Amino acid sequence: AATDVKGKTFAVATDTTFAPFEFRNGGGDLVGIDMDLLHAIAENQGFSVDIKSLGFDAALQALQSNQVQGVIAGMSITDKRKLIFDFSDPYFDSGVQMAVAKDNETVKTYADLKGKTVAVKRGTEGETFANSIKDANGFTVKALADSATIYDDVKAGNSVAVFDDYPVLAYGVSQNNGLKIVTPKEAGSSYGFAVNKAQNSDLLAAFDAGLANLKANGDYQKILDKYLSAPE
Ligand code: GLN
Question: Does CATH place domain 96-181 in 3.10.20.30?
């Protein structure tokens, strides 16, 4: 299958800010685990990528309308999404967690959210999880476009908490983003590269072949270590 992609260029959509998976570094370049992984796989398999940094919900819409051939965006492999997308082999295990402002001493559990508003990123597992427990705990869910905006909403005091993927929350907290994590991880899905169902199967096969090669030669682990052991 890998030969079918050789020399071709594929448009791949991603999120705007989802560090350490995709984010702009000090020089304005889009970097992160997803970006390094995709570039390394493309090189390994002999294809090129044209990255479109659109935002999470917008990336999924761009894929569905065939403006791009793939999405890599810390995108969780869920049963619901598998109805419309085909996913690569999983490349990172994740799950949802709750964070509040660093100086908040009153909200420590889901029950403490009673009567309050929480911010989530539209179209994400964090949104789905928040909606699944909001009635039982009596809180309101506000969906916004990206991770930076939901974190700002908490810091501004408009929302009291966010639900987001734990590696992303942990990375942000390690960078002193003004939040702290207060609940255990919810069991979550793994991340995968997505294409539209039954389309671009050669690209998907090349991604899986490249991922397997990078796992075998140690480059996959090097990419993880670069962003997770010593955050920039
Ligand atoms: N992993 C989450 C999901 O797929 C969030 C992805 C993201 O915000 N980029 O829903």
Answer: no
